[in-house]
Amino acid sequence: MTTTSATSAPKAPVRCGWCGELEDYCHYHDNEWGFPVDDDRRLFEKLCLEGFQSGLSWLTILRKREAFRRAFANFEIDKMARFTEKDVERLLGDAGIVRHRGKIEAAIHNAKCAQELLKTEPSLAAYFWKFEPDPKSRPKTLTPEVLRTFTTSPESVALSKDLKKRGWKFVGPTTMYALMQAMGLVNDHMDGCTTRAQVLKARKAFKVPR
């Protein structure tokens, strides 16, 4: 009689500590956060949502993301730039999003700023990726302790300063660093995180927009 050894269970993925065990966070961490992005609509969406997150948790915004997309014309820059005061009032009455007049008006204002930027830049992606840090400037070891100290970088400060000079709102250095983390300009998945290697592979295959 031959016995068959039990099949070992697959190893659970190792994740960055910030996502915990919440399904929303885990899916976002495994499939989006840190992967390089060159799509203008996605970059603009993230910039707007980071502005709405100010003072709130990203989980709150993540769970409202589909409602935000419906409310803000899927964050299509040209469509948002045409929003009027009537749209602001509509958005203030939308319980699916964060109903903060200043943030709503800033998102619409930034769409107009994006249109102006695109008169001199080939794309939003080409503009944002100019602020990618030199990999040699990044820490060689990314432990949870090290990562907790990352809230800004010289590049996020420079990006923030340039956007503010162009008239953009809700684009502080911390907000811009969060954008850089999410959109893959930096890979802040901790050492040992299962997704870190996937992001590194994606970055090697990624063509930086120019």
TrEMBL record:
The keyword Metal-binding applies. GO terms for molecular function: DNA-3-methyladenine glycosylase activity; metal ion binding. The keyword Metal-binding applies. InterPro entries: Adenine_glyco, DNA-3mA_glycosylase, DNA_glycosylase. Keywords: Metal-binding, Zinc. Gene3D superfamilies: Hypothetical protein, domain 2 (1.10.340.30). GO terms for biological process: base-excision repair. It comes from the Bacteria. Pfam families: Adenine_glyco. Zn(2+) binds at C16, H29, H189, C193. This is DNA-3-methyladenine glycosylase I.
